[in-house]
Write a structure and sequence with these properties.
By secondary structure, the chain is of the alpha/beta class. It has two domains: 3-109 and 282-299, ATPase, nucleotide binding domain (Nucleotidyltransferase, domain 5, 2-Layer Sandwich); 121-277, Nucleotidyltransferase, domain 5 (2-Layer Sandwich). Helices cover 37% and strands 21% of the residues. The protein contains eleven helices and twelve strands. A five-stranded mixed beta sheet has the order 3-2-1-4-7, sandwiched between helices. A five-stranded mixed beta sheet has the order 10-9-8-11-12, with helices on both faces. Strands 5-6 form a two-stranded antiparallel sheet. The longest helix has 25 residues, at 211-235. The protein starts with a strand and ends with a helix.
Length: 301
Amino acid sequence: MNYAAAVDIGGTNTRVALVSEVYEIEDRVQFPTDADHPFITLQKIKDVIDTFRKDIIGVGVSCPGPLDLIGGKVLTTPNLHGDWHGLAVVSELEKILGIPVYLENDANLAALAEAVIGEGKDWPIVQYLTISTGVGAGLVINKKIFQGSHGFANEIANTVMQNNGPSHGSIYPGGIEAICSGTAIEQRAAKAGLVVKHAGEVNDLAKQGNTDAKQIMDDAKLYLANYLAGVQAYIDPDIIILGGSVALKTEGFVEEVEALVKERVYDVVKPYLKIRKSTLNEDSGLLGAACLCLPKEKTGR
């Protein structure tokens, strides 16, 4: 049996998994991403892969964008810093691993996994968004990632949704990531004097009647719904799938967003609107990364 090593480099954690050609994750290790010093993280990736002791035919890497997919480089991803920017991650990993390495945008790979084996497997046009540390998206048409002319399709983090809105890091003020991401929700809560550990706790306070928390969560849901209504109008996907920690772990988040989107589309569109929670949980990026190097007839790519 063929195996892939799947690597999901996130803004907070990096996960490395051994994935079989039938998409079973047989082993996995997670460790904190060094967001400033990439070579520390790359060495840890090698150390984990060395422990798998299987016939690994390739390594698929999921990484936050924007990416140079032609050159195999990280560009200016907002949640990784320093020497990550401009890093030729494919060549650097191939140098230390000695096996082929394939790179894709993290949200694109999550979208691919959803379209191949997840909630979107029965549909030809699958739109995916991750609402987590950041906000990302991927569009898969007939089991193939739509990358756009230059590989930047669905790089949505800086999509401005609110004039003079909140900002964080390199995200434009009012950008969707600065309103809807877990990081943004936590930062806005802290500025309001709320003591919380994650977006779910902000949502809990909102449901308990805290007005600051309610405003923050209402903004996150409302502006995400506005964006998704635009996606539905422009793309007309068969299904929209939401993943990431905010969508998966915040009680009622996906259902409330779907209800808001339904208020923002034509009546004739409402019967076709499907917004679903990822059933791959947080494994979609890993499984999508495995799709890059497992036999193509298995992935539809």
